[in-house]
Every structure is written in structure tokens, then in C-alpha cells.
Amino acid sequence: MSDNNGQIKKMMIILSKASLENVYAAFVLANGARMEGIQAEIFFTFFGLEAIHKDKLEHLHTATVGNPAMHIPTLIGGLPGMEAFATSMMKKEMEKLDIPGVKEFLEIMNASGVKLWACRLAMDMFHYKKEDMIDELDGVLTVGDFYKQGSGEGTHMLFI
User: Fold this and answer.
1) In angstroms, rounded to a whole number, what is the distance separating the alpha carbons of residues 30 and 112?
2) Which of 1, 72, 79, 149 would you label with 129, given CA atoms 20 to 30 Å apart?
3) Do residues 87 and 22 make contact, with C-beta atoms less than 8 angstroms apart?
4) Half-sphere exposure for 87 (CA within 13 Å, toward CB)
5) Model confidence over 40-91: pLDDT tens digits?
6) How far is C-alpha 141 from the chain's CA centre?
7) Are 123 and 143 in contact (CB under 8 A)?
8) Domain segments of the chain: what residues?
């Protein structure tokens, strides 16, 4: 019988894409969890690793092709400069709301206790080393290790 009354105790967020909108969705959810006293961990896998790669995290883009929420035809979204334009517009709107940049947001989450993990398989596949990643990274885990991190009652997993 459960004694936590359905309370969320831990959020385990899996980030597989480093488009600006996906990265910020994961960061806002993890940070929001911590603000509510909920443990939070992010597992960066495949292209999501770019959000914690020292040389790439400041160069993330908004997806304009294959993103129905952009409300622009795919042909136009694929035109040269459209992705850069959309990214610039999104960053300006985030600045108006005082949303921190990617690097600063990672530092804030680390300070608040969000655990940040890189996927071993994806690291090996892209030939990344731990030194390529941000200093705030808590470690490199296998999928099995990440699942063990998420064991226990009141844990929720979210794939972004």
C-alpha cells in the first residue's frame, strides 16, 4: 500500500533533442520541480547532449522545419536564415521574461540540486569525452544506471 498519497517525489527528465524549445522545456520543468521541493534529474541523450556540450550549448536553435507549432509551411521554414530568425525572436522574447541563457540556467539548476547526467551510449556514439561537457555535469550514466536513479515510489519519468 502506498503511503505517499500519489505525491511526486522525483522528476526524471530525458532530453533527446537540443532544439532551443526542447531544452528550455526540460530546464523549466526541472527547475520548477526543485522550486516545489521535488527532486529533479535530467538525462541528456543523443542530440540532447548538445545542451551540455561546452562548445555547442550557446549555439542552440529553434526548429522551424517539422515543427507544426511554428505555423509556417515547411518550405518557408527551410529557407536560408529562417531558423536563425526564429531563434533570434525566441531569445528576445525569453529575455523580456528574464529567462536566463542556457549556460546560466544550467548553473542555476546545478546550484538548486538538479542532477545532470550524460548518456554513456550517446557519448560514445558521438565520440564525446566528459571533458567536452559542462563542469556542472554530475556524471555519465548508462540507461540502466539512469533507471536505477529513478527507482522508488513517487518518481515520474518524462521524455522530451
Assistant:
1) 10
2) 149
3) no
4) 18
5) 999 999 999 999 999 999 998 887 666 666 667 665 666 566 666 666 777 7
6) 16
7) no
8) 10-147
Q: Which helix or strand (DSSP H or E) is residue 11 part of?
A: strand 10-15
Per-residue confidence (pLDDT) for residue 73, from 0 to 100: 62
pLDDT tens for 117-152 read 999 999 999 999 999 999 999 999 999 999 999 999
Give me the count of residues in the chain: 160
DSSP H helix total and E strand total for the chain: 6, 5
Please give the Cα distance from 15 to 102 (Å, whole number). Answer: 14
- pTM attached to this predicted model: 0.86
Copy the grid coordinates of residue 119.
548518456
The domain 10-147 having CATH identifier 3.30.390.50: the answer here is: no
